[in-house]
Amino acid sequence: MTRPLVVWKYAASLDGHIAAKDGTSKWITSEEARADLHRLRAELDAIMVGSGTMTADNPSLTVRHVQGRQPLRVVVDSNARTPANARVLDDAAPTLIAVAKDADADHLGDHAIRIPTSDRGLGLHALLKALEDRGVGSILLEGGPTLAGSFLDDGLIDRMVAYIAPVAIGGGGKAALAGPDAPSIGDAKRFRLLEVTTIGPDVRLTAEPIRG
Questions:
Q1: Rounded to 5 degrees, what are φ and ψ at 102?
Q2: Which of 25, 47, 48, 182 lies at 20 to 30 Å from 56 by C-alpha?
């Protein structure tokens, strides 16, 4: 079965953290890196985050800083916790909120799409199929470590774009990835580095998973 291309993006410190111990993350990377991210947003069909990112940041998920089209905004929100006044529900770009079949999502109106659940939440394969049926061919996965971990564990990440800033956060920082741990280094998921580019004071790494 075909499915949309999934590009996982994150921004982190040199020591691998996406936020400090208190949860603050604005701004780890530079203005130049953020502008580059918005260029990447404009190139893909959809931007996806999870309910954790929605609750913590209330992001707009629009293309700014550069000229470009506005992609579809997708929130993975099993329990329909996204409020009716969330920024993603404005008129700046189209939005879908992916919820469980039994979720109370009346307040989301036509923005809600109901997806079958698995033992870990919404079924990601079913979600990607639903988006493909709506004409989505590529997705920028900007969600937090839990959603990224689920996609990686299911083998659904096709490319990684990491913006690494020359800053160290230290112990207690929030990791870029959550989910099942590799029991040993031999079990770690491996990537093939495709490109290393300097963006202002930061570095952008582009890689793809090594499968099989």
A1: -100, 10
A2: 182
